[in-house]
Amino acid sequence: LEDGAWVAGEIESGTLVAESGGASYPIVRGVPRFVTPDNYAANFGVQWNRFRATQLDSHSGLSMSASRFFDFTQWHAGDLHGRWVLDAGCGAGRFAEVALGLGLEVVAIDYSIAVDACRTNLGHHPRLHVLQADIYHLPFAPATFGGAYSLGVLQHTPQPRAAFEALCAQLAPGGRIAVDVYPKLLLNILWPKYWLRPFTRRLPADRLLRLVEWCVPVLLPISQAISLIPVVGRRLRYLVPVVNYESVYPLSPQQLREWSVLDTFDMLSPAHDHPQSAETLRAWFAAACLEDVQVERRGFLVGRGRRAEVDVCA
């Protein structure tokens, strides 16, 4: 550390310099930055700083993030208590907040400046450690973590399998991993986001966000009206290019609109969107020589596994 400035026991600024002197990384607003600010995930930085608290259970008063975390990871209180876990693609920290509640030491990384939202939300937790880093070039020694999870992230990376393999390399013997991806379905060709994204992903993020904020008050009531059609309404509403959580989550009308803007932007803005099949996800786990593998549909396609105590692939 060079030129470190400390505030209340935390390093707020300075530079991390390699012992060889060949590389250096700035610490900005308390977060070490191992990547440049402009990258393929810049849109996520915009959305999570704009909707910094929206999906945190502590803000919404609901338990949607906790429910998804526990359903997808199948981790329970005491399972990994006190161990270091990696949150890959932390966004504003919705799942990191849950993991911290389990008594875990959480290293939260994101490729975008969403790390600033995460640290603002959760920086008061002494067991939270936030870094802006590249999932393909993680700044940690291999086999460091007792657990890793990546929820809502892998499909938005350029090479999802390589991103998954990078996470597996971080697992210590016995370490557990949980990931989810969008399912690859034939019906995806009917989903408006896949024929709108070639255009919307090219728009500057701030312009697209303004467009979404203008469209949601128009399109959300249409989607809600279609939902009332008997039998087929709940499926037909997906033909309207707006996210509608009515009767899915117990959100207030204001929260419905806010979540709709957030997730419609999230649907249309990513540079990458790569759904996967269950067979493909199982093949990833098999190639990584993980044990106790489970792959299932829970809306998302979810995969869980554990690194063997003894390397069976050696």
Low-confidence stretches: none
Element order: H for helix, E for strand: EEEEHHHEHEHEEHEHHHHHEE
- Nearest-integer average pLDDT: 94
Walk across the major sheet and give the strand order.
7-6-5-8-9-11-10
Spatial shape: globular
Helix and strand arrangement:
Blueprint: E1 2-7, E2 10-17, E3 24-28, E4 31-32, H1 42-50, H2 57-60, H3 64-73, E5 84-88, H4 94-101, E6 105-110, H5 114-122, E7 128-132, E8 145-150, H6 160-168, E9 171-181, H7 192-200, H8 205-227, H9 233-236, H10 253-268, H11 278-287, E10 290-298, E11 300-307
Helix pairs in contact: 1-5, 8-10
Can you offer a commentary on this structure?
- The chain is α/β, with parallel strands linked by helices and 314 residues long.
- It is 35% helix and 23% strand.
- It is built from eleven helices and eleven strands.
- Helix 1 (42-50) packs parallel to helix 5 and helix 8 (205-227) packs across helix 10.
- It is globular.
Can you tag this structure with a few keywords?
single chain; 314 residues; alpha/beta; seven-stranded mixed beta sheet; four-stranded antiparallel beta sheet; globular
